Amino acid sequence: VLTQECYVQNTAREYAKRYAAEAKSLEGFGEVPEIIPIFLVHRPANNIPYATVEEELIGEFVKYSVRDGKEVTLLRRDSEAGQKCCTFQHWVYEKTNGNLLVTDLQGVGMKLTDVGIATLAKGYKGFKGNCSISFIEQFRALHQCNKYCEMLGLKSLRTTHQKQRKTTSMKSKNQPNSSTVKKTVPKKARESRDFISSEH
């Protein structure tokens, strides 16, 4: 469990570094959220031989994205850190073609810890997430773009989602023969996606 915790947070940290590099090159973007590193330590003389160590965050601890996927806390919506965390989620989602989402963004100011990861399919790029696929579905439905999403040129998820639904309904009306074939594809896709239980 501790190894997985380190792997999740440090993987998310690598995405955050890439996000920061891209965002910092934009004029007026300002400070970028950082996911602090977490380390696994071995203590052979201790009754509990393994532990995790990370920087202590001092100040008001805020959850910018909650586990149940429901929006929106005032600090998430109105604060600079909250908006930039939402944009970070959108950026990762777009960069991975909707296959991966960093969840549970929480911490003090721009320093984040104890994050999670949800993957669309088990084993995406050999990575095992620790959150359910439903987090991705909820994010796609609930995310509202802000000025930082616009600065990074991210595509609106709401528009894309609505277009996909309209295209599907139009195709099923106009092409009844092909709709039965197309309906089986999402079903198979759903069956192949394993829900990844939380280890928190």
From TrEMBL:
Main function: Protein kinase that recognizes phosphorylation sites in which the surrounding peptides have an alpha-helical conformation. Regulates cardiac development and cardiomyocyte differentiation by negatively regulating Wnt/beta-catenin signaling.
Region annotation Disordered: where it falls in the sequence: 160-200
Full protein name: Alpha-protein kinase 2
Biased composition (Polar residues): 169-182
One GO cellular component, as annotated: basolateral plasma membrane
PROSITE patterns documented for this protein: ALPHA_KINASE
EC assignment: 2.7.11.1
Keyword Kinase: yes
Basic and acidic residues bias locations: 188-200
Catalysed reactions, as listed in the record: L-threonyl-[protein] + ATP = O-phospho-L-threonyl-[protein] + ADP + H(+); L-seryl-[protein] + ATP = O-phospho-L-seryl-[protein] + ADP + H(+)
Organism domain of life: Eukaryota
Source organism of the structure: Oreotrochilus melanogaster
Record localization: Basolateral cell membrane
Alpha-type protein kinase domain span: 1-157
InterPro entries recorded: a-kinase_dom, Kinase-like_dom_sf
Principal EC category: transferase
Record keywords: Cell membrane, Disulfide bond, Immunoglobulin domain, Kinase, Membrane, Repeat, Serine/threonine-protein kinase, Transferase
Family that this chain belongs to: Belongs to the protein kinase superfamily. Alpha-type protein kinase family. ALPK subfamily.
GO MF term set: ATP binding; protein serine/threonine kinase activity
